[in-house]
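Appendix B. Extra example for self-study. Work through it before the problem class; the solution is given directly after the inputs so you can check yourself.
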Amino acid sequence: MDVSKRVAAMQFSPIRRFNTYAFEAEAEGKKVYRLNIGQPDVETPECFMDAIRGFDKKVIAYAESGGVTDLVDAIIDYNKQYNMEFAREDILITNGGSEALTMIFTALLNPGEEAVIAEPFYTNYNTFCNQVNGTLVPITTRAEDGYAWANREMIERAITPKTKAICCISPGNPTGRVLTLDEMKLIGEIAREHDLWIISDEVYREFAYDGRDVTSFGMLEDIADRVVIVDSVSKRFSACGARVGCVMSKNRELMSGILKLAQGRLCCPTLEQVGAAALYRLDKAYYQEAKAEYEGRRNAAYEELIQIPGVICQKPGGAFYLTCKLPVEDAEDFLMFLLKEFDDKGETVMFAPAAGFYATPGLGKNEMRIAYVLNQESMRRGAELIRLGIEAYKNR
Amino acid sequence: MDVSKRVAAMQFSPIRRFNTYAFEAEAEGKKVYRLNIGQPDVETPECFMDAIRGFDKKVIAYAESGGVTDLVDAIIDYNKQYNMEFAREDILITNGGSEALTMIFTALLNPGEEAVIAEPFYTNYNTFCNQVNGTLVPITTRAEDGYAWANREMIERAITPKTKAICCISPGNPTGRVLTLDEMKLIGEIAREHDLWIISDEVYREFAYDGRDVTSFGMLEDIADRVVIVDSVSKRFSACGARVGCVMSKNRELMSGILKLAQGRLCCPTLEQVGAAALYRLDKAYYQEAKAEYEGRRNAAYEELIQIPGVICQKPGGAFYLTCKLPVEDAEDFLMFLLKEFDDKGETVMFAPAAGFYATPGLGKNEMRIAYVLNQESMRRGAELIRLGIEAYKNR
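Solution. Structure tokens for the complete assembly:
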């Protein structure tokens, strides 16, 4: 009467598991700048709650398994602004990007089959993939190179006869790396040569800074049959708790497999889909504003951090994360010091140790990820606290 | 570049796949009594939308992975009325009973391991189990016996060295069979002797008719460490589209495994949990009223159906389903006749062919499931249309 090997082997979230110590620090009266989790403080656009408050049916009934048609249509229109044309049957609504990814791995990988992914990567990919006994094979990247990975040799080194897909998160979590359209074309070429699927996680799509273009694997028509895109309202519209995402693909066989999974769990919540349709219909100006806000925060965090002696980091191009090497041996030990022993004027700071984002054991031990989800002033203060913390940590 | 074997082998929902023909019949101007799907017409209690409309935070943020504390506490209180005591760490909120079951199978079954279940059973169990390469082994029951299955010999015949769990749906979907507490004790004994988990789906808990007691595996303290209960607001509170369910177990190792899966998908929607907390806090009078309503509908449907010559059926004791043998060879062919060729005064009827609820190939071909989710008058008319349909079908 034991549990399955897959859950026994899974880890608790490395992003969330230090929360207990943060709560303890707060209970002692410290203020903790929480840079560990991608929960923005930006307000959710009011149209979301307005649409939900206006829902007037007397029975909260099952929705269509593939999603509420009005939301699907709103997503079709949203994609048109980037000259991408999707049909209704190319889109299926999910419980956040998380369920989208779980369904994709379930629909693609037989037990023992592999997907390659650049490490460090968003740690929950392990759960999505291990749930169905698949394996993630890492393409190892380095802070010194800005975590670049769109390189034929690096990618092909990770491909084996068991490889089924290349996972791409761009703009990247946790590195902030943004793929250019040329890099996407290269990845597409490699996928075609090795007959692989491309799983493209584009939940940070608009958050590409310094004048970078918005890029998407959906723009490459010649590989459309092997591309599956994951999207979500969580980050783009600051609506993480809505849990609305979607799968988009022009491969009919894949979408048919995913529809079977969707029918199995019946549907996504009706109300949240009504709210999400309003979000996807927001004017383009909203994206510009949100992007400007995050770009400012990134600048603030980066400018402060890069001045700390020994920090190794390239300016991240997108998303709202920054991963860097710290001048400490063990970032986890340093984090515990920050939460348990350190304070400056009653304040301390929290980040996510990056080791949890690597699949290769031992890597990332001296790296951290921060999310620039707080306002500029808080980001500067958070970075300052990391600097002061390092000084205190070294002088223990 | 193919899809996984597991989704290739999965079926589309046998409950939903005839919808196209129903829509076509409606487009031709026919009225279709839809008895095929468990979507009640009973209004969702207003407290659900009221609680959601009152939500006033500016950011729709991630909730706790295990669920919003207020909802967990409401579920604890709800269980107390049946003298069942759960702690906060015994309960984890899920996206409907569907995600609860998916997580349980993921946390319990290694690829190739088995769970036994009485057939006919709620067909989506196939999806939940096959998703993680587990196998459902059926305990075959018969309409003539009222689909009884709590019998040592029948259960033990299905147990093999690979069996990990016994699945119990009581009150049952699609049969309406209700387990007595003595039957639950017997199943508990068998589980202990064979060292098995008990997965108990109790989403219809209150819908036990003819003076039957509400029963739960949670009432058996001596097997508490091997019991995991699935609950949901869908049926009890007529809130199918809310997609709020939960897993309940006092087995810490299992709950810890499920929490890892929950952290992987981050959380359930915040708003729906706020609404669900209000539902679980409804006065007990609500359950009495809802039960009386469904009991009346069951009586109406049963009384009409049992008069049809050749129909074999015992009066179902609970839930809101009735499965029976029809005097036709192929219920699916008969359903197509009803939708495409038959009408009485412009009206026809739709049911779910029961073959899809059996795991054993060939069984259930002449059986149907109806859900008594419409008012009494509609249920009587629906049953009458089945009777008239059978006459017309035989006289083709």
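Self-check: The first helix of chain A runs from residue 5 to 9. If your reasoning did not lead you there, revisit section 3.
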